[in-house]
């Protein structure tokens, strides 16, 4: 009996830290978020989008723009990360009250012109991206791919937020979301 008990005891002692770590000691990771976390995420997206827009505006293309092209790609990747974080925050949030829904809706209405401006700048810079790889090859395929990813993530964020809005604001959300989707579709088409 001792031979069987000792291995079980050792196994229990060895695995008990794993069981303890598998159970959330605090439920911080599972805590419901609220509208403030979504608003903070939208602020982060707006800041990153503004940074990207400034970098795109200054992009000269060609050999001299090679480092700027890398910076644009890094900023785009960060924007994708920010969008994914916002989607998670929205999905984890409880449904928003009317007051919270108004604040979130206003944040998206304020974000839309920044999106439109950035996309318009990307379209205007297409000739520069066409010879952006050391001045001899096109980067337009990469811009198109990034635009498709950003469009998808923006759509996912819009859906996640719309599901949390109060009924009045949820019915109005497509007005802004459709404008954003149309702006992305137009920019993607310019790069095809």
UniProtKB/TrEMBL annotation:
InterPro entries: Cell_wall_mannoprotein_1 (IPR021054). It is found in: Secreted, Cell wall. Residues 1-20 form the signal peptide. One of its GO terms (cellular component) is fungal-type cell wall. Keywords: Cell wall, Lipid-binding, Secreted, Signal. One of its GO terms (molecular function) is lipid binding. Its main location: secreted. Belongs to the cell wall mannoprotein 1 family. Constitutive protein of the cell wall. Antigen target of host humoral immune response. PANTHER family: CELL WALL GALACTOMANNOPROTEIN, PUTATIVE (AFU_ORTHOLOGUE AFUA_4G00870)-RELATED, CELL WALL SERINE-THREONINE-RICH GALACTOMANNOPROTEIN MP1 (AFU_ORTHOLOGUE AFUA_4G03240). This is Cell wall mannoprotein 1. It comes from Aspergillus japonicus CBS 114.51. The lineage of its organism: Eukaryota, Fungi, Dikarya, Ascomycota, Pezizomycotina.
């Amino acid at each position: 009996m001792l031979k069987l008990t000792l291995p079980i005891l050792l196994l229990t002692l060895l695995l008990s830290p794993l069981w303890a770590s598998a159970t959330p000691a605090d439920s911080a990771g599972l805590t419901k978020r609220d509208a403030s976390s979504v608003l903070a995420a939208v602020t982060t997206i707006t800041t990153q989008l503004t940074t990207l827009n400034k970098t795109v505006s200054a992009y000269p293309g060609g050999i001299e723009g090679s480092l700027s092209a890398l910076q644009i790609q890094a900023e785009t990747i960060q924007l994708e990360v920010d969008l994914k974080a916002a989607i998670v925050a929205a999905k984890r949030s409880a449904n928003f009250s009317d007051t919270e829904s108004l604040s979130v809706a206003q944040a998206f209405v304020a974000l839309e012109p920044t999106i439109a401006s950035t996309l318009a700048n990307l379209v205007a810079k297409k000739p520069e991206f066409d010879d952006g790889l050391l001045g001899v090859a096109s980067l337009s395929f990469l811009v198109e791919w990034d635009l498709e990813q950003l469009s998808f993530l923006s759509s996912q964020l819009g859906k996640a937020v719309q599901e949390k809005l109060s009924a009045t604001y949820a019915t109005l959300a497509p007005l802004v979301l459709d404008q954003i989707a149309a702006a992305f579709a137009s920019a993607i088409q310019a790069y095809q």
